[in-house]
Target: SCP-2 sterol transfer family protein
Amino acid sequence: MSHAADDDIEAFFDRVARFGYEPRLERTSGTMRFEIFDDQRADQETDHWLVTFSRGHLDASRGQHPADTVIRIDRATFRDLITGRANMVENWLRNRVQAFGAPTLLFQFWLIPGLFPGPPDADHPRDFVRRARR
Model:
């Protein structure tokens, strides 16, 4: 288990907990538990994080609590997702992201503006237009 991966994952869930209000989630309530496991270890140590949606507000905490949706994902793939190096839908289709319960929560979570970064080499649309005008 990499300390850098753990630091990135903890920082991500801290950001979720501090995210505040998202108007697009005003009608969304539920819980989503992330089960993040280390695919390279024989003992399959698993970290559990709970994300709570409450009418537009988000919260995140550690713990193995009952949830409406359970997401199973290996640590390396999760780190790639939260750093913008991988795409969630692509990894879901390849069964690297497994969703049980109400998977719509996962897609609503993924689409929250500003929570997940774009690819590291991606251009901001304004920068792209400025370069195209030159």
User: Anything to note?
Assistant: The longest strand covers residues 29-37. The chain has a mean pLDDT of 87. The CA atoms of residues 36 and 130 lie 40 Å apart.
